[in-house]
């Protein structure tokens, strides 16, 4: 069984680039950048778009993780990847993360706020 190593690099909060395709004003669309390594080959400059309804609790409620975008097109374990993305997201933006936090009733929109944090995870790929 092949192992995937994902190294996350950045989180782009409320990315206009990610949201421009599906900007419905009900969700915050953000982007996570990463490098994927499979069988010794690196796929750099990859990203995944994530979304979460506005007003939801970003520390607890689920996020939607899209499909990875970039050169890799082999077998993939989306469930393990989604869990890793969500964990990375919470480590950056959650209560212990480095994001800018406001009270629950604040009416603030921050776009294209980039947070840099390298973090790696490995998981098995399907055959």
Summarize this structure briefly.
The protein has helices spanning 16-19, 78-93, and strands spanning 3-13, 27-38, 41-53, 64-65, 113-124. The chain has 127 residues and is α+β, with helices and mostly antiparallel strands.
Topology:
Layout: E1 3-13, H1 16-19, E2 27-38, E3 41-53, E4 64-65, H2 78-93, E5 113-124
Antiparallel strand pairs: 1-2, 1-5, 2-3, 3-4
Describe what this molecule looks like in 3D.
- With 127 residues, this protein is α+β, with helices and mostly antiparallel strands.
- It is 16% helix and 39% strand.
- It has one domain (3-124).
- It has helices spanning 16-19, 78-93; strands at 3-13, 27-38, 41-53, 64-65, 113-124.
- The protein has a five-stranded antiparallel sheet with strand order 4-3-2-1-5.
- Strand 2 and strand 3 form a beta hairpin.
- The radius of gyration is 15 Å and the shape is globular.
- How far do the termini sit from each other? 6 Å
- Could you name the ranges where pLDDT drops below 50 across 5 or more consecutive residues? none
Q: How many strand elements?
A: 5
Count of discrete domains: 1
Separate helix tally: 2
What is the H/E order? EHEEEHE
Helix fraction bin: 10-25%
Structural class: alpha+beta
Gyration radius (Cα, Å) is 15 Å
Key attributes of the depicted protein:
127 residues; alpha+beta; five-stranded antiparallel sheet; 2 helices; 5 strands
């Amino acid at each position: 069984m092949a192992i995937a190593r994902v190294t996350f690099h950045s989180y782009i909060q409320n990315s206009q680039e990610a949201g421009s395709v599906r900007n419905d004003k009900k969700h915050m669309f953000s982007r996570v950048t990463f490098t994927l390594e499979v069988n010794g080959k690196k796929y750099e400059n990859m990203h995944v778009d994530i979304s979460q309804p506005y007003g939801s609790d970003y520390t607890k409620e689920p996020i939607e993780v899209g499909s990875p975008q970039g050169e890799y097109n082999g077998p993939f374990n989306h469930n393990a990847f989604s869990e890793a993305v969500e964990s990375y997201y919470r480590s950056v933006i959650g209560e212990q993360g480095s994001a800018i936090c406001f009270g629950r009733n604040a009416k603030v929109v921050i776009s294209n706020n980039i947070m840099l944090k390298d973090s790696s995870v490995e998981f098995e790929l399907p055959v």
